[in-house]
Amino acid sequence: MRHAAFALLLPLMTHVMQGANFTARKTVVDGIEVVQLGDAVRRMEVSIAPSIGNMAYEILVGGKNVLWFPFHSPADFKQNPTFAGVPFLAPWANRLDGDFFWANGKKYLLNLDLGNVRRDNHQKPIHGLLNFSSAWEVVSVTSDERSASATSRLEFWKHPEMMAQFPFAHTITMTYRLATAKWKWRRCSTTIPRIRCRWRSGIIPISDCTMRRAIDGRCIWRHAITWY
After folding, report:
1. Whole-prediction pTM
2. What would the pLDDT profile of 14-54 be if each residue is shown by its tens digit?
3. What is the DSSP-derived secondary structure letter of residue 180?
4. Does some domain include residue 228?
5. Is 132 helix (H, G, I), strand (E, B) or coil?
6. CB distance 151 to 189 below 8 Å
7. In which domain, by residue range, is 106 found?
């Protein structure tokens, strides 16, 4: 197995870890388990829904969400999933040419009868299998005087409906971290066999352009995608 890495650095009843200005907690919002990371000094709070694709759906800055999220709550989002917040696009991002892909010189066909392949307006398979997956497990929620973070894991190999589409056993570990009002890629890891292929996986924030805010003269987030 080969180990590669990418992660997100972000400027159940409630369980709070607290360190100076930073807090990290697990809570329930409208019946949905949520992890919240906070920075009291900079008035920032990040909300993540592990059971909905481990998606960060809200980044509040001074009480305003800088992400596009046209829902009243994560429960509404779960009932009507659509691209918003910060979706994770895997095992492929963007579109495949058809209902198949090539890896290691071999052609693999998608099983459309399983119903877990999304299509674009031109009926091309798009953005992988994990956008709204409930298969994520929270493994740590911590904070100290310098940051707050949450780490979740998805064991892809345990899910036959995923392996049927992408037959390469692997585990994905994703970390969100809020620190000094910065949101950057730092580390998310996956264990996966060596694969030679022509597509990429990634993650991208979807912003509400009217809600962008800057802190100390710096943009609080930026697009960043890493592929393996």
Report:
1. 0.77
2. 455 555 689 999 999 999 999 999 999 989 999 999 999 99
3. T
4. no
5. coil
6. no
7. 2-219
